[in-house]
Amino acid sequence: MAEKDVPVYDTMHVDLKATGPGRCQVTVTGELDVATTGEARTILRTALDGYRHIVVDLSGLRFCDCSGLSALLAAARNARTVGVELRLRAVPRTLARILRLTGTHRAFTIESVS
Fold it and tell me: Which residues form a coiled coil (predicted)?
């Protein structure tokens, strides 16, 4: 099979759920990478447009590459710009380590590491 014939499987799911007036939870499960980041960016923008308090639950995140980190950082930057509170919940230890090593952990309010 030629390389161009190899399918790219989207192995991520993003769910947006209202949790109260002006509040929502965005749940990210699977792999947040170059192949799946577009959907995550879209859902995060939707959350920023409609809610004042956003929790991003990463308890089901199995992998995050630099494009996934970029999507999360863009959401944090946009949240600050429009005065929205954005928190990360259940950040996987591997991602927490990357955030700490790169100094980008300061861009987020991190509720917990799993």
Answer: none
Q: Looking at residue 16, what is its pLDDT? A: 96
Distance of CA 111 to the CA centre of its chain: 14
Query: Cβ neighbours of residue 35 under 8 Å, at least 6 residues apart?
Result: 8, 9, 10, 11
Report helix, strand or coil for 98: helix
Domain locations along the chain: 10-110
The structural architecture, per CATH, of the domain 10-110 is 2-Layer Sandwich (3.30)
- 108 residue type, one letter: F
* Range 79-100 average pLDDT: 95
Q: Computed over its alpha carbons, how large is the radius of gyration of the chain?
A: 14
The pTM assigned to this predicted structure is 0.88
